[in-house]
Amino acid sequence: MDDSDSVLFEEEFFKLLKQLTTSDDLVEELEDEIADIRLEIDTNLKNRNISNKELQEIYSRLWNEKKNLVKCQDNLEQFANAKEIAEIQQQHSKCKEKLIATIEVTYKENIYFSKINDTSKEQVLRFAFLTSMSKEEYGSFISCVLEHREQFHPYLRNTFEQIDNLLVQPILLEGRSISYADDEGNLYSDNQDLIFDKLKVSETSENKIFDNVQSLIEKLIQLFTMNRNVTNSLELIGLIGQSWTDQLFSCIIKNYFEPRMPRVESEFDQFVEVLQEGQLLENFLIQIGMIPEETNGNLVLRNYSDNIREHFSAKISQDFIIRTKRTLKLDQNDLIGSDFALENCPFIKNNKFPLFQVSRFMMEIRIIFEEMSQLLETSSSNLKLLIVETFGNVCELFVDISPFVFKLNIELNPRQNAIFHNNCLLFGYIVESVIQVHKPRLDLLKDYISVVRSMASQVFMNQMQHQEKLLVSFIANDIFRGCLHTIADEIPSTDLKISSQSHFELRQCINQCLSHLNTLHSAFVDILPEKICGRTFNTLITSFLTEFIQRILELNDISSLGASHLSHELDYFSKELKLFLAHSDSLVSKWMKMNEINFILKSSLLEIVNRWADGKGLLANYLTAEEVKHLIRALFQNNDRRSNALAKIK
């Protein structure tokens, strides 16, 4: 723009200003006033020494000045160049930001929840605009809110979310009503001409729940619109509807309709009638303007109603799944007998399941299967398909959740491992039984039976392998071997201190084995089925005795004194170990083999040969000829008598 153009622009600019106002310096005055107002707001907000009423006066002035500036801007736009337009727009933008910030602060200070007093936990809704502003000031405030509704939506939504949680939910869940109080807590009567500045939850009401919800909405509309005396009341009600309606009906669905969703199809039609109550409330909101008529109702409730059959089916399935998840996380140590867990189960006619201990929550698992079984018998064909799928989902949850919830316990604690093993066996039996009742519809569940039983076996087997290694480790170490050799080599002149230490350490190793066996016995004896418990100890003790016998057979030289001392230790060990013996041929065989070795340690050559009896005696039943010969060579000196004895062992 050259000088002549600039002069022309200034002439046209001031000519327009004279047409709009008697003041030639309007723009400058407006900008100065806006700057002063902005400074006044910043200073007072920072110092927090401004009253609500004074604040309303400030932003009312700011609002009027802003409108004048915008009016000038709109009329000058055709004459102003880009620079002047940008400056005016920048001033407008800053003014708008300050205005919105002021609105937000004012709103937060005048609408909030608080306790009635310091000792009460009860929350009330405080609507302080009634005491902080005149009707005209409040109307100006509402105009600003409506002008900037997009920026203000989050604050309204937050307020109505609190209203849902603290006022609507008690109505829906507990049948409570809403009472209205003044600053001193005095209750007002239900008078349409009164404006109330506090709302709180009252005692249980006999009125219908949706009447109470409708009454709450009416009172809130009265508060926000000052009995509809505020300018643009209908527009404000529409804004409230935009911010609240979806949240409100989501709250109603979650806290009123969902808990009343029937568990059986025979009650479904009755529930549909209950759903009509929500549609009556929807009609009321349309009537007062919270929901525009052209939207044909609230989409949240309408979609829920249109798809209620699907919601009903999904809710049934979801309830079973949620119950299963919660049940599987209960305490595994709370035990009951398997017979009690299966008591009065309708799909188990002849209970042949072995008696052992299981977690109490397995009874709840059985009840879940029982309820699904009953639904499968009485439901429609479409719901039957969903129930069959739910059976599979419950089985999948057991396989996926239970090993990981108790993972640490079943890995480290043999008792917990045994309980988990039993729970799996019982679960497999429940699935197997329900399949028999609903053949062939539930045949797909057969795979879960093998999966669960395999999981039980594998987890228990891993634990037993760990316990077996731990048990053997007590005698498969250098300390035990060293003590054994030291005792075997003992002679009368052996240092007493060394001898005593060796005997102490050997007995300590043996006692560790016995103590560990006792711990396992305590963990298993009242938990596992008798047969499984017997097989478990058979495996553990057999492995241990095999290692123990091998340690003795490794001795190449045993003195007379050493043989006596070893025999004494074997007597002690055999006596204590007998308490854990199960009725198993393999285990008894190992125990007898150890006793026969003990016999050799304290017998003469003649007694050994006689007990061998040309391979037909008791000794020959448990030891091989090579094992007997090895012990003879270790115990007796090399002479003719030993040679003759060895010749007879074959």
From TrEMBL:
Protein name: Centromere/kinetochore protein zw10-like protein
Regions that span the bilayer: none
All copies of domain ZW10 C-terminal helical, residue ranges: 508-649
Top-level taxon of origin: Eukaryota
Alphabetical list of Pfam families matching this protein: ZW10_C, ZW10_C2, Zw10_middle
Stored InterPro entries: Zw10/DSL1_C_sf, ZW10_C, ZW10_C_2, Zw10_middle
A cellular component term, taken from the record's GO annotations: RZZ complex
Limits of the Centromere/kinetochore protein zw10 middle domain: 198-325
GO biological process entries: endoplasmic reticulum to Golgi vesicle-mediated transport; mitotic spindle assembly checkpoint signaling
The keyword Coiled coil appears for this protein: yes
Gene3D superfamilies: 1.10.357.150
Coiled-coil region(s): 20-47
UniProt keyword DNA damage present: no
Keywords, in A-Z order: Coiled coil
Ranges for domain Centromere/kinetochore protein zw10 C-terminal: 379-471
Cross-referenced PANTHER family: CENTROMERE/KINETOCHORE PROTEIN ZW10 (PTHR12205), CENTROMERE_KINETOCHORE PROTEIN ZW10 HOMOLOG (PTHR12205:SF0)
